[in-house]
Amino acid sequence: MKETDINSPSREQMKKIDFPLKLDRPIVFFDLETTGTNIYADRIVEISVVKIRPDNSIEIKTKRVNPERPIPPEATAIHGIKDEDVANQPPFKAMAKSIFDFFEGCDLGGYNVVRFDIPLLAEEFKRANLDFSAKGRRIIDSQIIYHKKEPRDLSAALKFYCGKEMNNAHNAEADILATIEVFVGQTKKYDSLPANIEELNLFCNYKDENWIDGDGKFRWSGEEAVINFGKNQGIPLKKIAADDPRFLQWMIKSSFPPDAAKIAKNALIGIFPKKNEKK
């Protein structure tokens, strides 16, 4: 599930792109919009595929999909697709065979496809009794290329924001002095960056607004508290308390942060978090 770029190429622009590789078989670049980021539990709400053939001809298909479950508000906030937008669309299993055939004999491409799109698509195919595998397919992942070619460490930041080389990386004093210089450079580069420490604190806060506890072991899905890690990710806390209380007992006995352990302990006695309730 990735945020839509309003400046992305149109279909007509795509057809004019001079693809830089000589292909010996088609490659399908694809993207999924989904109900969430759990590759085993979440479902596709939109799939877009672009097949590039060795003769450079291009075929583009985009389909909305009924996930047969409510789309969480936090997912809609990213891709803009609401329940009513897919209510009359077919479920994935109804179109699975045609999509499967479209991918047949093709290599794969996309952005973050290795970690997200490919495994989630494989799970959807599995539910439709189709065995989809990346084995034997060559994969181009633009995110991996981006991260490898544009490092995001302190040395890269010092060069980007200040035009300086980092000579003593991982020397504590050099690192922290460089960090301050990078921060000053950032305030000069980004006019929209908050100008006071309170607002900067909020800007730098990495906690997701849907996290219930400090480390995000539980999160909100709409008004419902759900598990946000491991094999039970995405499952409502109330359901876990009723069907698998040993999971919550394990959390209490393990080294989870106190706020997460308290939520687990309360759930075992029927007390559940309420959204917007003051803590």
Question: Can you describe this structure?
Answer:
The protein has 279 residues and is α/β, with parallel strands linked by helices. The protein is 41% helix and 14% strand. It is built from twelve helices and seven strands. Helix 7 (154-162) crosses helix 8 (172-189), helix 10 packs across helix 11 and helix 11 (245-253) packs antiparallel against helix 12 (258-268). The model is unreliable at 1-7 (pLDDT under 50).
Strand content: 5-15%
Mean pLDDT: 89
- Biggest beta-sheet profile: 5 strands, mixed
Number of helices, counting only DSSP H or I runs of 4 residues or more: 12
What is the strand tally?
Answer: 7
Helix content: 40-55%
**Side-by-side strand order of the widest sheet:** 3-2-1-4-5
Q: In terms of structural class, how would the helical and strand content be classed?
A: alpha/beta
Global geometry: globular
Q: Give the C-alpha Rg.
A: 23 Å
The run of helices and strands is: HEEEHHHEHEHHHHEEHHH
From the N-terminal CA to the C-terminal CA, the straight-line distance is: 31 Å
Unreliable stretches: 1-7
Which tags fit this structure?
279 residues, alpha/beta, five-stranded mixed beta sheet, two-stranded antiparallel sheet, 12 helices, 41% helix, 14% strand, disordered N terminus
